[in-house]
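Exercise 4. Each item below gives a protein and its sequence. For each, produce the structure-token representation.

Item: Trehalase (Micromonospora rhizosphaerae).
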Amino acid sequence: MTIAPTIAVDTRPAASDHRNLDRAARRVLVTNWRARATVPATKLYPHQWSWDSAFIAIGLRHLSPTRAQRELESLFGAQWHDGRVPHIVFDPDVPGDAYFPGPGFWRSGSANAAAVPTSGIVQPPAHALATWATYRADPAVAHVRGFLPRMYPRLAHWHHYLLTRRDLGGAGLASIVHPWESGMDNSPAWDAPLSRIEPAPPGSFTRRDLAHAPAAERPTDLDYGRYIRLASDYRDAGYADSPSMHAFAIEDPLYNALLIAGEHALADIAAAIGRDPAPHLATAARLTAALVSRLYDPAANMFFPRNVNTGELVRSWSITGLMPMIVPGLPVARELVDTALGNRFRLREACPLPSYDLTAPDHVPGQYWRGPGWVNTSWLFWHGLRLHGETALADDLRDRLLHRVLETGFREYVDPLTGTGHGSDGFSWTAALTLDLIRAA
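Answer:
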């Protein structure tokens, strides 16, 4: 869907633009709703995705607080016994071969409490943040439904899994064990760690994504071969987590920043239901110290992922290194703003913020996470700017994001300089976070 722009780039969107954009965003979310949850896009992503649902709930709360609550409840209804929240919950009404890898590949069996088919890996923990935001949209409805008392133990169990089973480096931070877990599948940040992985043979899998998006905008076959190798090895090991069995193990800034922000949200949730918030605040403080000491490079004013298997920082200038901006009390927030304002990310011009260094020779403005801008990461940075008192920059980013969506429509990802849309259209988190940005205007 493309909505023709009616404003200049440097002009605040008019009230009529907001009304039109609001109605169009609501249509996307209504169209993509499936009984219990929202699909990210009708063709390419026909199931429920984990961190998508968190961002979708943040927008849905403005349309229907009850539906936003159900979005999160549906996802956590597929939570595994060990606490993990799978990155895909498969819709039994969708043919098993509609998406690869599908339920037959993952073989989740009875590992999750509801015994519904899911994947076996996870995604960034944005859920506590979304739960608290959803509750605040309508506390009365949430109270009647018992939303927070039901979500709190599930969220705490999820975080406990990440803080224990996924502390592969032994320093307190959670590790991802697959590029899909980062949410930024083919980011250049993962090129070096992935280069050690022997890919699955090309004939051993069939890609469904290329039926719905051009190959130039998606990960390569070599990428997919390595993704499938990592996923099948993890599956065949019974989804066991230990440093010795993971060929790909990364302490990711975005992942851990969301975990920290989630612990702050869990503290608020705990207080709201009469529980002690202090343990969550203590965990957040400990994780923040570990995040800065292990992943921040003061010479670069940037966070970098750490490869647990080598102990080395992965010095790739992807947007993951800016995402700790969402951490309350982050001691280097101003330094991250300076980095975002520089030539690599061009905060005052690029929109959405590029997923990867604009000055890098391998920046590709239309290929998934190798350069395009995504609304969710820009929304997170906007949230962080407001959190740390950078009001003028936050307001400017919000206005330009809304204009970009007016110009381009609800695309999955966008060339951050030209505004050319890529990937799926009618993308749910783009629509949902647009609703949230409108409400903040």
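Check: The chain has 15 helices and ten strands.
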